[in-house]
Amino acid sequence: MISHRKLETLLNHLLEPHAIKDYCPNGLQVEGRERIRKVVTGVTASQALIDAAVAANADAILVHHGYFWSGEPAQITGMKQRRLKTLLAHDINLFAYHLPLDVHPEVGNNAQLAKLLGIKVRRGLEPWNSKSVAMVGKLEEPISGSDFAKLIAERLGREPLYCGDTGPELIRSVAWCTGGGQSYINLAAEQGIDAFISGEASEQTIHTAREMGMHFYAAGHHATERYGVKALGEWLATVHGLEVTFIDIDNPV
């Protein structure tokens, strides 16, 4: 058992949210009961995840996508009111870590996706940024674009959107950014990287891939960001002895 403030201190020490500018507050977003024994982890603090945490008698929820994003309406109404009401009524703490969880070199979303897909991490895609969100790596063995698409589908449990019209015959170098990281494809293309993976795609992403001679994979925002928070929960269980359960609320996007 641990206090909610002690848990926040441990997570902040590991993830260093102070070192990266973000679009939301990182850490304890909604305060619940002081003592925490059981934690539910998940990708997004949706109503479905909150309800599952209530059913599991959890003391805290730990997610990648929490609340209070910059630019969102400040009013506590509708969906936001219902989510917060459920948390407060059941005295459940909500912890959220966004970009700090993307970039962590061990439990981060990008690091975990690389591990899952057999990519050896080499550096950040933004060489001037020590906290680069997008990464660059190398495959252990060169692979065709279509075979890499099959590997992604097998490992993530969903078919990626794949564009490989003009990419090289074999993929050796890969850049990636989990979630909504498709805009980094331009920087990857400028660096001559063979393939780029993100969670999502925009209309212009496909044109960039075709015109710059790259393979591109949109593997799902949710699917690419399951693994960071799952690894973070496993760290809490192994190192700090908390009871942690990962709950995957499926999302096809």
Tell me about this structure.
A divalent metal cation 2 binds at residue 64. Pfam families: DUF34_NIF3. InterPro entries: DUF34/NIF3 (IPR002678), DUF34/NIF3_sf (IPR036069). With 253 residues, the chain is α/β, with parallel strands linked by helices. The chain is 37% helix and 25% strand. The chain is built from ten helices and 13 strands. It has a six-stranded mixed beta sheet with strand order 7-8-10-11-12-9, with helices on both faces. Strands 2-6-5-4-13 form a five-stranded mixed beta sheet, sandwiched between helices. Strand 4, helix 2 and strand 5 form a beta-alpha-beta unit. The mean pLDDT is 97.
Q: TL;DR of this structure?
A:
By secondary structure, this protein is α/β, with parallel strands linked by helices. The protein has helices at residues 4-15, 47-55, 78-89, 99-103, 109-117, 145-156, 185-190, 203-212, 221-224, 227-240; strands at residues 2-3, 27-30, 35-36, 38-44, 60-65, 93-96, 119-124, 135-143, 161-163, 171-177, 195-198, 215-218, 243-246.
